[in-house]
Amino acid sequence: MTKYGVVIGSTRKNSYSEAVAKAIVKGLPADAEVTFLNIKDLPLYNQDLDADSPEVYTAFRNAVSAQDAIIFVTPEHNRSISAALKNALDVASRPWGQNVWAGKPALVASQSISGISGVLAHHVLRQSLVFLDMPTMQQPELYIGQSDKLFDENLEPTNEGTKEFLADAGNKFSQFVARFK
């Protein structure tokens, strides 16, 4: 059994990023253990707290550490990732030398209601993952544009093509992760 952590870069309730993540997870093996890692309650990272980290930092670091692989789904905020996602990356990579992201295979998906599909946020996130030492699946590239038309109010895909594409990405990610076990 593989443990997959899912980090949703949007803190908005019923976000399209959550919809994309749930559709990807449906393609994981039946015995996969999936944990959605909450990032919205993390206080801003502050190096002054490294010596005596708040419990919420420690709990998040422990939750990340317990995962075998991570699925990231990010919206695009001002041509980058959300502040909440950047903060989560920082919290779990510190104190210096205690990066709990390191070595965990990653999948990156971006989404936007625009036609450019969060491409810039996607690549900003990938750059951070390189530094965090996370091997990242290269194909398929998951740039999900016009997400407001691809999911209904229940966060379900509105067409079979989207549903199949995202579930297939989850399946391919499980194969990618298996190479690291």
Low-confidence stretches: none
Topology, number of strands: 5
Average pLDDT reading:
96
SSE class: alpha/beta
CATH topology group: Rossmann fold
Number of helices: 6
Helix content: 25-40%
By CATH's scheme, which homologous superfamily applies?
Answer: Flavodoxin domain
The major beta sheet can be summarized as: 5 strands, parallel
Strand content: 5-15%
Architecture, according to CATH? 3-Layer(aba) Sandwich
What report would you give on this structure?
- This protein is an alpha/beta fold and 181 residues long.
- It has one domain: Rossmann fold.
- The chain contains six helices and five strands, in the order βαβαβαβαβαα.
- The protein has helices spanning 16-25, 55-65, 83-92, 119-131, 147-150, 160-178, and strands at 3-8, 33-37, 69-75, 106-111, 142-144.
- The chain has a five-stranded parallel β-sheet, with helices on both faces.
- α4 links the parallel β4 (106-111) and β5 (142-144).
- α1 packs across α6 (160-178).
